[in-house]
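Hello,

Our lab assistant flagged a job as stuck in the queue for most of the afternoon. It eventually completed. Since we weren't sure the result was trustworthy after the delay, we are filing this so someone can double-check. Below is the sequence as submitted and the structure that was eventually returned. Let us know if re-running is recommended.
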Amino acid sequence: MITYAKASDKNQHETIRVGFFAFDGYHMMDEKGNRSGYGYDFLRMAARYLNANYEYIGYDKSWDEMQDMLENGEIDLLTSVQKTSDRMEKFDFSKPIGTSSAILTVKSDNTRIVEQEYTTYENMKVGMLRENSRNDDFAEFAKEKNFTYQTIFYDKESDLKEALQNGEVDTVLTSSLRSIHDERVIEKFATHDFYAAVKKGNTPLLNEINYAIDQMNQAEGDWIDALDYQYYGQTEAKTLVFSEREKEIIQQYASGKEKLTVTCSIDREPYSYVENGKLKGIIPELFEELMDYAGIPYEIVIPKDRKEYEQWEKDGTVDIFMDGRVESENEAEANDVAVTVPYMNFGLARVTRRDFDGKIEKLAVARYQGMNGIEDNLVKDAERIQYDSREEALEAVRDGQADATYVYLYTAQKFVNQDSRGSVTYTVIDHPVYPHRICIMPSASHELSGILTKCIYALPDNKLESLILKYTAYTSENVTILTFIMLHPIKSFVAIALWVVILMCVLVLWTRLHERKKMLVVEKKRAEEKDILAKLAKSASESKSRFLFNMSHDIRTPLNAVLGFTNLAKEAVDDPEKEKDYLEKIQISGEHLLDIINDILEMSRVESGNVKLDEAECNLKEVIRESIVLIEESSKKKEQQFKVDIDGIKHPYVICDSLKLREILVQILENAVKFTSIGGDIQLSIRQLLNDDEEYADLIIGIRDNGCGMSSAFVEKMFLPFEREKTNTVSGLDGTGLGLAIAKSYIDAMGGDIQVQSEVAKGTEITITVQQKLTEKPTKESVEVSKEDFTRKFCGKRILIVEDNDLNREIEVAILEEAGFVVEEAVDGQEAVNKVKDSQGRHYDGILMDIQMPVMDGYEATREIRQLKNPVLSKTPIIAVSANAFDEDKIASEEAGMNAHIAKPIQMDYLFQTLDEILDK
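-- returned structure --
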């Protein structure tokens, strides 16, 4: 960054207060305060020849207010002022600084008001700026053309534009100094010079401004035209005016005396394709817009295939081809075809798999591409494999049957964006670029090419851009991300705790969408370099909206139960039985939410490749028994026949991750129960198959049901995150769409395999195979300890709770005091360190330490305690209590010097067991 020296006392600059009102194209300012526009550039150009600085005033003021401020001496200079008799009494005017006209504009899609057809102007509503000299010009114009109108006045140009777009007015009257968007100019009249104005009698400043203008005229060339072209150069192209002869041709077709037939190729999605029997895509929709501009009706004829389309081209069966790839006028003339100017340049892209090594040995090509294939001059030596369509060629690359294919850019962009596997990518090819035009065959009037060329020029700047965005943008179709909430079921804190967790979940899941947005920004830059106006960033916003909508539905069902039963519990204080029932239902809903938020977080770990196995000796039969217990009640409620056969387990003691194995079983069995009707059958059979070395065995798990079954299409994608064959709203069945994806990731981590056979309305059979190392029966037996035993052990022991959240701290205090502890509290790590330092001897038997806290976090507090000189105090047992529950969080706690790690929300049994183990050491 350059730092500029301030003016010395010998060279003080005069400050000129300039009226800088908001006017698109003339005075503009972005969110960072950077100014631009015709008026701003004029001032900066003049500053080269003035010993002065500017103070810009009034960006939020109206034109009427600006004139009052100049008259009252609140500003020194105002530009873009036209001379009127009233103004000449108040102001002095510089030499001309530009030329402007009055323009009358309508919305770009307004076909009711036709330019220069003054009967369509009758009684239209016209939006105008107050105290604008153009208002008098328009009154004279309306009188001359003999039509009446209604006037609605506005203070600011932004209000005027908004009124036009929302339909408050039919047209708006402004100066041609306004840059227009989504509008069409229908009249331009009353061209006058405009000036810089000063307050009457401010001759010194006026002389300075005129001096600067003289110098600009000598040194800056045709600066007025240069500024006009820079900021308004494309406005002229928006005026759509047909000659009398063209109007006659339009009327001839509009009357139905002659009928136009129109066609387009159907194998270039998203450019043009057929969906549900209708022609769709960028080109058909753009053509419809052009014909609406011209007011010409037409009939679309759809070819059966590329062969028929090419035959129509040869024999002239159809009058107009929307998508002619005509590279020169010579080519058109030789075939007696009239063509418009190019409305769109088709760029190329090479599509490959992400693991492409750079060498193309097999090239997928579309069989029918006309005389010349788009890849003819791009790849010489590769083997060409022909497919009936570009879509099939793209799928061949995705499936590994070919190394690459060349397609038009937006075809590549859409295919890659909608590839759920994420296995393909594309590279933009700079050359060649194919211009596409509308072709008028000999059977129709060739003057239609001129009419449609005018319509192409009259298109709004962003029309093609918006169509490209519409047909290529990435959207998260049918994606439901369930976000669930950690909640301890204490009725006084339920609502606050739930919403805090919701916000956390939104932030975690939004990170994924943010990564997609980054990719879209890169693609947008590429598109801009090739004059492609697709604003892909908007699609991220659409994805976000869809994500939030779906998430809201998934959260509200359990959340409604929690909040509803909380309110009922508050009202049932005098009825302990009802209150207990309500609290139990709150407990169930809270635990359900916790289970699924764990699924969400676990899925995040899975996608980042952080699945780790915690293998240890375990009893397979015990794991299976625990799994069955978790789903047995649900099966009984549906009166299902649940048969279990584990006789095939000959070696029950193995080394495996028992927790993940149980989660796999529970997930598959839950689905079997959920999607099997009342009275249905479910079978679980488990057997072992010894390996040759007899140290390992394949565990083979078979789960079969006679439920609703799945379609073959869904079976192929059932293990993808967020996939559900039916939505909750349709089926009435809860499901995150994550459980199967997580189960599959665990099976993969174990080196196993899962096979699925399913048929709709008949049922599903799933077979899981994982290899496990066999071991001997462990000698150590676990001993269950009752809550009363814990209370006797803990009675009188002193414990310090370190927690910054008042609600969480209150819950922990209540739990531990009920268990017999003497509890003290600290609200951050620093206070905890001070309390430990000030204690005498082994004052605290243990410390429960939160991690994320203000002033000093739990890690730092633990490290400071471990460094205390008093060996008794420095060895005080410290247990982390944190919402961070991943393995890496537990490792971080251990590295900081903590003795154990407990995840929130606190499970009392696990808390007491951990305290018992730690405090006994």
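-- support follow-up --
The delay was a queue issue, not a problem with the job. The result is valid. The longest strand covers residues 183-199. Residues 1-8, 475-489, 539-553, 727-733 have pLDDT under 50 and may be disordered.
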